[in-house]
Design a protein that fits this description.
Layout lengths: L2 H4 L1 E5 L2 E8 L2 E8 L2 E9 L5 E8 L5 E6 L8 H10 L8 H13 L5 E4 L4 E3 L2 E4 L2 E3 L7 E2 L1
Parallel strand pairs: 4-7
Antiparallel strand pairs: 1-2, 2-3, 4-5, 5-6, 8-9, 9-10, 10-11
Length: 143
């Protein structure tokens, strides 16, 4: 068994790590900053499936990206390139970048969202940029 076959990705709040067995010892090394699939959702206007990816940029800032593709396999490299444009620093090894994208796409976040084009009434909900009120007398609730 080669060391590459023993390697696995580990995601946590400090980043993306690869764990390998070397000389009968588990070795963990950071290969990228934090990235995760935060939520799945859809656009209200046309029902398009969406995904929210949160990540830490190369300068240490938190950022997010909403993808219309929900990380479909044939579009993952376009998403990788867009995230790089937004400041995410991918590992130079393309197999590691692909493994990160595959792991993100396979994750199943509990959080869901509906994206609207503008604040206001949508069906029986009043939607503001940071919250949704429904029914109108129920008070604020995180969106």
């Amino acid at each position: 068994m080669t060391p590459a076959s023993c390697a696995q990705l580990c995601f946590n709040t400090k980043g993306v790590f690869i764990e390998e067995i070397r000389q009968n010892r588990k070795v963990k090394r950071k290969i990228a900053e934090r990235i995760r699939l935060r939520a799945l959702g859809s656009r209200m206007v046309d029902g398009t499936a969406m995904a929210e990816v949160r990540f830490k940029t190369e300068r240490g800032h938190r950022s997010e990206y909403f993808s219309k593709s929900t990380l479909l396999p044939h579009l993952r490299f376009a998403i990788r390139d867009r995230l790089a444009d937004l400041g995410y620093e991918w590992p130079e090894d393309p197999t590691q970048s692909k493994a990160i994208l595959d792991a993100i796409a396979a994750s199943k976040p509990n959080r869901r969202f509906t994206m609207v084009d503008a604040p206001g009434w949508h069906d029986s909900m009043f939607i503001l940029p940071d919250r949704v009120k429904w029914p109108p007398c129920a008070g604020p609730r995180a969106g």
